Amino acid sequence: MFNVYLPLFLSFFSHLADGRLNTGHAGVLLAERRGSYPLIDLRILKSNAQQGEVETGTRRKVKRLLSFQRYCHASRLLRGLVSHSPGSLHLLDDDYLGQAAHMLSKVGTWNFDIFLFDRLTNGNSLVTLMCHLFNVYDLIHHFQLDMVKLNRFLGMVQEDYHSQNPYHNAVHAADVTQAMYCYLKEPKLAEHLSPLDIFLGLMAAAAHDVDHPGVNQPFLIKTRHHLASLYQNTSVLESHHWRSTVGMLRESGLLSHLPADMSQDIEQRLGSLILATDINRQNEFLMTFREHLDNQDLDLQLSSHRHFILQIALKCADVCNPCRVWELSRQWSERVCEEFYRQGDLERRFDLEISPLCNQQADSIPAIQIGFISYIVEPLFEEWHRFTEPSLLSQTMLDHLHKNKANWGSLRCAHTPSDTQSCSQAEEPEGGVGEGADIS
Ligand SMILES: [Zn+2]
C-alpha cells in the first residue's frame, strides 16, 4: 500500500517542466511582482478572461487587496517602525504575558506548544522566540547587533510569511526554529558550535520559508510564475526564500557594521542552509549523511562538517512534525493537507492537472501522512538518531513517530474499512500534548 505513495511523493515534489504545461493560462501569470502571490494572479486571470461583468465586485475586491499589498510592500521603512517585539505584548493581559514568559523558560522542551505560544504572543511567536534565543546565546552582544535593526529585520521576516497559508506561515517558521534550538542543544553537537554556527542555524530556521506562496514548485513551473523562470525551475521556492532573506538583511542593515567579507560569507552560508531544505535533494543529503556515519569520519572541529550537520539539523527541524506529540502533530498534518487541497482546488478551478496529494476526494490525510513518514521522515530521523546517540530527545522523537504512524494507520483504516491489510496492523490513536517527555 505504501508503495503506491512513493511515486506520488516523487512527482509531487519533482519538476514538471514537460508537455503538460497549460499555456492557455500561463501568459497572464508572467506579471512581474516582487513577492509570490500566485492566487491573486490567478484571480485576475479568471476575472479578465472569463467572468465579465458578473464578477465586477470580486475584481474590485482583488484590486483593493492588491493595492493594500503594494502599499505594505512599498513601506518597509514605515513597517520597520511598527513594533513586533515582545514590547507589543502591552496590549495583552498581564496574565498572557506571564504565561508566554513561563513558556519561554521551557523553550527547550520537545512538547513545547507553539500554537499556544503564538496565541499568547498575539501572533508574534517568531519575533518573540528569536529575540529570546538571541539573548540566551548572547548573540546580540557577540555580533554587536543593533537592537532596532534586529527588531526591524525580524519584523520583516515575520510579516513576509503569509498568514493565510494554513501551513507555510510564521508559526511553522517559529516551530522549526524551536526544533532547531532543541537540536543545537544536543550534547554531540553543542560543545563544538561557534556563535556564528548558532546565529546561522537560528536565522536559517526563522527565514527558511519566508514569502512562501502556499503552492509548490511544480505549480509555479506549470503556471510559468516569474519566480520559476527567475530560478530556472530549480529550487525555485528555496532560492526565493534565501534571496528574500538577503534582501531583508541588507534593507534592515543588520549586518552593515560587519566586514564585507564576513557579511557576504553569512549570506552565502544562509543560502546553503535554506537550499538544503529542498525536498528534491532529500536523497542526496541522506546518502551523504549515512556515508559519514558508516565511515565514522565526521569531525566537528571542521567548519565544513559542522555546516553539513547544520544543514541536516535544519532538514530535520523542517519535517519534524510527525515526531511531535500526537495532538500537535495531528494539527500540523491537517494544516499541510489543507494547503495541498487548496492547491488542488485551484488547479481544478482553472483546468490544470491536479497535482499528486492535492486531490481532497482521492488523497486522505492519513494516507498522505503515512507516505510522508515512511519515505521522508523515518529514514532521516533514524540517521539523526545514530548521529546523536545516546540522545533522550532522539529516542523520544522516534517513539512519537512510531506512535503517530500507527495512529494514522488506525484512522486510515476507519476511512477505508475494506483495506484489511493495513487494518490488521492498526493501533488505537493515543497520546496527547501533556504526555510528551519533558526534554530540556
Ligand atoms: Zn518549512
UniProtKB/TrEMBL annotation:
Reactions catalysed: 3',5'-cyclic AMP + H2O = AMP + H(+)
Ligand binding (Zn(2+) 2): D209
Keyword hit for Signal: yes
Record bears the keyword DNA-binding: no
Cofactor note (record): Binds 2 divalent metal cations per subunit. Site 1 may preferentially bind zinc ions, while site 2 has a preference for magnesium and/or manganese ions.
Record-level GO BP terms: signal transduction
Record-listed Zn(2+) 1 binding positions: H172, H208, D209, D318
Domain PDEase: from-to ranges: 92-415
Protein origin, superkingdom: Eukaryota
GO molecular function, one term: metal ion binding
InterPro entries noted in UniProt: HD/PDEase_dom, PDEase, PDEase_catalytic_dom, PDEase_catalytic_dom_sf, PDEase_CS
Cofactor: a divalent metal cation
Active site positions: H168 (proton donor)
Annotated family: Belongs to the cyclic nucleotide phosphodiesterase family. PDE7 subfamily.
Protein name: Phosphodiesterase
Organism: Amphilophus citrinellus
